[in-house]
Amino acid sequence: EDQVTQSPEALRLQEGESSSLNCSYTVSGLRGLFWYRQDPGKGPEFLFTLYSAGEEKEKERLKATLTKKESFLHITAPKPEDSATYLCAVLPGTYKYIFGTGTRLKVLA
Amino acid sequence: EAQVTQNPRYLITVTGKKLTVTCSQNMNHEYMSWYRQDPGLGLRQIYYSMNVEVTDKGDVPEGYKVSRKEKRNFPLILESPSPNQTSLYFCASSLASVNTEAFFGQGTRLTVV
Fold first, then answer.
1. How confident is the model over A82-92, as pLDDT tens digits?
2. Which of A13, A29, A49, A71 shows its CA 20 to 30 Å from the CA of A89?
3. Cβ–Cβ of A99/B4 closer than 8 Å?
4. Nearest Cβ partner of B99 from A31, A41, A45?
């Protein structure tokens, strides 16, 4: 069965304290892995797509990496405005997206 | 401005009263889908559409219907809502189904009493 697991469920960081969020997956035939950011009361906002193991993408303080079993979202020197829920999603061999339950990140000033 | 628009944003209804949540996108996207988001369960796909007149079930389709008569619109229909359909619903669209970013609507918070 295709599934996605994100950890930790919640994370509190001090401003400037770097950390990583994990997304582990078990799918049949990965077409792509996606990271989204979701602010309270809003729809998810796209961050990255990763296609194959070894691929990395960066955007400001965020860097996403992919292996054959998991993806990491590294946050370097986070700021309070990075506080949000970060969602991981995979698109397996079917056309049905599977989302993880997310990591709630709180960055304290 | 590129956007996905859902209506209504908030809805309280009674069990069994048919309702429709509308979704419209202005980006000429082929792929559209509906999700529900529940605490502890994350986003779960209800239905998706790969193009006009082409729809298929996601992971939790029971109790829902969809139609795709025009490329820009993808309404979600609850023929006989029940309390377990109380949830936050999101519509999303993307240029194509494969490896393209999805744009999400603002969400519809539905309460069925």
1. 999 999 999 88
2. A13
3. no
4. A31
